[in-house]
Amino acid sequence: MKIQAPKGTFDILPYGCGEETWRQSGLWQYVEAIIRQAASEYGYLEIRTPIYERTELFDRGVGETTDIVSKEMFTFKDRSERLMSLRPEGTASTARAFVEHNLSLHGSAHKFFYIGPMFRYERPQSGRYRQHHQFGVEAYGPGGPEQDAEVIDLLLYVYRWLGLKNLTVHINSVGDADSRAKYRDALVQYLKPHVSSLSEESQVRFEKNPLRILDSKDPKDKELVQHAPSILKYLTPEAEKHFHAVCHLLGKLGIDYVVNDKIVRGLDYYNQTVFEVLTNDLGAQNTIGAGGRYDGLVAQFDGPDIPAVGFATGLERVLQVMMAQQTPWNAPAGPFVYFIPLGDEAKETCFLLAAQCRKAHIPASVELMAKKVGPAIQNAVRAGAVHCCVIGIDEMAKGRAVLKELATRQESEISLEIAELERLYARRTD
Ligand code: HAM
Description:
Largest sheet: 8 strands, mixed
Bound molecules: histidyl-adenosine monophosphate
Structural class: alpha+beta
Distance between the termini: 52 Å
């Protein structure tokens, strides 16, 4: 049997992705470079945590009754019988690392970002994978509304920079513990007479975590929930003040948003602000990024009582929206010169010229296979080369050759001195 990538996973390839253009590695590099630059402009520093952790971390952090933990984790026993899980998200791991390394001793405010694979055993479909990739940020310290507004602003800054259009920000507050306790009672009162008409899943949620019913995708549940009391009416004065202040700041930043009191999010750690960014270009999986405040999580892992807020955006969804919207992007530059030898003697000359180029930090490649110029040029194009340079006996004798720009087909004669190539390369990267 031919071995294939596991269901719900995919390869990111330099070429040959067919219709699935979002899977080309050049596009991923382009997007990741912009993300890194944007995160740095906002003062976020990179954190990298393991892709697997003790299962208990997610049980305690994300919540045992959430779908992510109860149904979707890849869990296994290591050879010492310890229960481990592939990380389904990055917030719990970041909090664990923060506590484990006593990072609170390094100051009172901390801003982290990460890019990496996450694993959820979901039913795969377009925009939903068993291995997906997230860009996420987590900001610890400031508990005020400015930090909430900053992370939302950063997320939209990245989307804007990437050229994404027609996105809608939905925002809500799930309040503090007091607000939620009061709201939970009100929601239970409202749902009680209708429990039997709720979906099976929501009937379980009714017992364990009724707020999650607001999140149900079942059409009948959705209908019922439409008329449920609004959590925003149950916010304590402090929670209400915080939420209004966040909305006020978003307005000042020129960010359009919709207050959507049905957003509760599928992870247990949230309090106060929660938000989602939606797109119409992805079909059923219309949430491109999401996050919120989670003030109690770090303390829950025996760390300091430090407020926190963050988001994550799925890179697959970002790239798919880019492709759907035909957003322009630039592939990272390939070799500056692609040398094409005519004959075996020229092969050595080209090989050595390319080696000299690399010593001078000029990206260069050599055609070592094709016997004819046509296929060699095709290889140069596929490699993303800027120029090709065909060298045969004549060129070797003269010490000069034609440099052809592949995109424009413009030709110029150059000497085969490395100094000349250095000059040309310096002019290009000026
Ligand atoms: P989340 O909403 O579970 O939040 O995931 C964040 C984003 O990851 C989603 O909006 C979506 O774009 C993407 N995503 C999730 N699951 C999949 C999947 N199976 N396939 C493709 N993309 C997916 C979190 O993970 C929180 N940790 C976000 C956060 C950070 N909150 C505070 N800080």
